[in-house]
Write a structure and sequence with these properties.
0% of the residues lie in helices and 53% in strands. With 118 residues, the chain is mainly beta. The N and C termini lie far apart (39 Å).
């Protein structure tokens, strides 16, 4: 059974950097051909894909967030992390880490609420 768990601060000040980590169990983030994504859902809106890190370590980001986003990994801990710079209240959302990319997603974390506010 693959499990993903998000962790990180629930409140971030405007203009700061949001940083969330996903800890994966039941699978290795280096397993061939799997992708590991971050997805968020702002209140009252649909899900928005942020980006992924592939089994190889390569990354790909949403064009609309690319300039502010970085996804990295720690293979020794089986974790991957998203950093979103210069946040505004519009970045307030529930953030999910997910196994998958493109059109296929199979395992999701429970999600973590992040609020951007002073």
């Amino acid at each position: 059974q693959v499990q993903l768990q998000e962790s990180g601060p629930g409140l971030v000040w405007p203009s700061q950097t949001l940083s969330l980590t996903c800890t994966v169990s039941g699978d290795s983030i280096t397993t061939n051909y799997y992708y590991w994504s971050w997805i968020r859902q702002p209140p009252g809106k649909g899900p928005e894909w942020i980006g992924y890190i592939a089994y190889s370590g390569s990354t790909y980001y949403s064009p609309s967030l690319k300039s502010r986003t970085s996804i990295s990994r720690d293979t020794s801990k089986n974790q991957f992390t998203v950093q979103l710079k210069s946040v505004t209240p519009e970045d307030t959302a529930v953030y999910y880490c997910v196994r998958g990319g493109g059109t296929y997603y199979d395992y999701w974390g429970q999600g973590t609420q992040v609020t951007v506010s002073s």
